[in-house]
Amino acid sequence: MIKRDELIKIGKFNKPHGIKGELSFLFTDDSFDESDCPFLICELDGIFVPFRLEEYRFTSASNALVKLKTIDSEKKAHRLANHEVYFPKTHKKAEEVEAYSWDYFIGFTLIDERTGEIGRISEVDTSTLNTLFLVEKAGETTYIPAADDMITHIDDEGRKIFVELPDGLLELNEN
């Protein structure tokens, strides 16, 4: 079973293109073009499902038309429209992922240099101008800004991020 913390978000399928199952793919990361991994992954009904990438062609610097192996009609392609697309972290170098996507840090433990462990990053919220880590500990969720200037150290092997949070930030989450 594929887990969210094993993936990075690389884009989103838009609408179907034509009647043979092609999809318009707006990507933020062209990992699929630079890797030997033959799959793109979508979350369907709460489960991450891999789809074999049959062929693709770029239509711009951030868009491609993709054909997936089992998607052979407009109706099947329409089911994937507006779904986010993921790629396995194992097919990307850590430094490339870090430089490109906050999703790389899902599953990492967030530790403040002064107060200690805050919790485990369960999700990244990019729906607003300020990207947020959703950090869980003991059933509670804390929202922490994902900002380069607060990160002091990253331990890839230990899956930990060390940060120096501004005074009072954790208290804001308590209210």
Short recap of the structure:
14% of the residues lie in helices and 46% in strands. The protein contains 4 helices and 12 strands, in the order E-E-H-E-E-E-H-E-H-E-E-E-E-E-E-H. Mean pLDDT is 85; it is low at 93-99.
**Which class best fits the helix and strand makeup?**
mainly beta
% residues in beta strands: over 45%
CA-CA gap between termini: 37 Å
- Low-pLDDT runs of 5+ residues are 93-99
Helix content: 10-25%
Look at the structure and give the mean pLDDT.
85
Series of H and E elements: EEHEEEHEHEEEEEEH
Count every helix, treating DSSP H or I runs of 4 or more residues as helices: 4
Number of strands: 12
Q: Tell me the major beta sheet.
A: 6 strands, antiparallel, barrel
Please tell me how large the radius of gyration is.
18 Å
Strand order of the largest sheet: 1-2-5-4-3-6
**Given the C-alpha coordinates, what overall shape results?**
elongated
